[in-house]
Fold:
Amino acid sequence: MNNDEIQITWNYHNGTKHPNGIFLMKPHFYDPALRPSPYKIYKTLKGISLPLDRNPTSSTLKTISGVIGQNESDNLPDLQSLGRILYFSSGITKTISFVGLGEFEFRAASCTGALYHIEIYLVCGDIPGLEAGVYHFDPKEMKLDQLRKGDFRGVLVKATADENYVKHAPVILVYTDIFTRNSIKYGTREYRHTFWDCGTIIANTLAMCNSHHFRTKVIMGFLDNTVNSLLDLNQEKEVSIALIPIGKANPTGAKEPTKIETLNLPTEPLSNYDYDDPEIAKIHLASSLTSPEQVLSWRSKNTSIQSYKSSTNGVVLEPKISEISRETPIETVIIKRGSTRKFSRESISFQQLSTIIHYSTRGVCIDFLQKYGDSIIDMYFIVNSVENLEPGTYYFDKKRNYLELLKEGIFRNEAMHLGLDQDIPGDGSVCVFFMTNLEKILAKLENRGYRAAQIEASILGGRFYLAAYSQNVGATGLTFYDDEVTEFFSPHSKDKNTMFMIVLGKK
Ligand SMILES: Cc1cc2nc3c(=O)[nH]c(=O)nc-3n(C[C@H](O)[C@H](O)[C@H](O)COP(=O)(O)O)c2cc1C
Structure:
């Protein structure tokens, strides 16, 4: 299967559309009482305790919108800062008891079904407090398990075809997905959740790295098999999704070993279910990259999509600009964040909405976008109740920081329906749909373009969560009826596909 056989992506995407996608027709049963363990436990490794410092640092709005440029910072991570980055990305932030189901540990970032199928690994040279090695982050015990001893960063430099940020990074995080932990509930649609739930975590990681002034970039183009082998993954069950190099030091002198030994380290079962979805395996394989030349050519594609000229019927955003540094710190927001289960139908202010949109959308430093501020995602809004803003549907013109009015009217019932007939989008103040022109993206980035579009949308969605909570606005990710969303915003959105959805509002 090749990356250019894009029919495979279309089959997957169309086959997992709500309500009638053929892959969603397969009967399956999930008993929440038999929820898979959300922790990967290595049976024989002792682990190194991570320090946990939850003290607040920088303002959320600053950390989600800023970027550390080429020569702006030579701050380097140590064990202390890594503990913070990992905890505020994927650590346990609260425990809630549910009758009949027991205690659930909730994490720093939102995750479909609270199934927590994304794992984080760390590949580093010698850094203060931690020797060179390959590690797995255990959020349950707040520790790092050492899988390999020695400097293996050279493997990742090679796997990313000498990517500049990877080459200079003292530490590289690798995000993986254990499919069955989530597919047991969501079936084949799980592969979308791979990126949704990885993206919300990455939004936190990027913000935390900014708060420490570490240079970062999201890397989506890499040799899948090499990275998976380095992490000793059982690739039928768990695969690498994204890399994040952290910090800028001298280029790594680490040599690529001639052979990566298989470890087969024993773990507790990755999930209590042993069903591997063939359609997920198929699209993942078809979007894998297999040679350094392919990685290089993938990342060199020009992803810019013709800019659209919006009409003059709309409003310019009015975000908070002054004293942004004094806004709620990122750590405080992450601790208090949670998905809002019930909205009150009260209005949020236009300034709150403007601030959330403005600071969430400044840019994502990611390998398939040529420069910070570029994007392959378009945003469409249903406004139910925002002070001083006509209810209706809107398109966000990022260049002008402008909401173009598409259709005036009250669309609470339609919103409710589009969000899979749940009350949440009807009761919320605003629904946001992150869309892309998948046809154009696949023409440029082939099957791996699907991963690219999903992850960028989800990182933006994760930022909306953070920005909302920083403005005392509630938020929740939501799932949706794909084609009906496209129809609803048509003709404007007629060639676009929804990648992610979030609802904002008062609790
Ligand atoms: C992409 C995405 C889609 C979601 N879809 C729904 C949904 O359709 N209905 C719902 O009630 N919650 C939905 N959620 C919320 C999750 O159930 C919630 O994140 C999870 O229970 C973890 O709780 P927390 O976000 O409060 O930490 C979604 C979350 C995400 C990230």
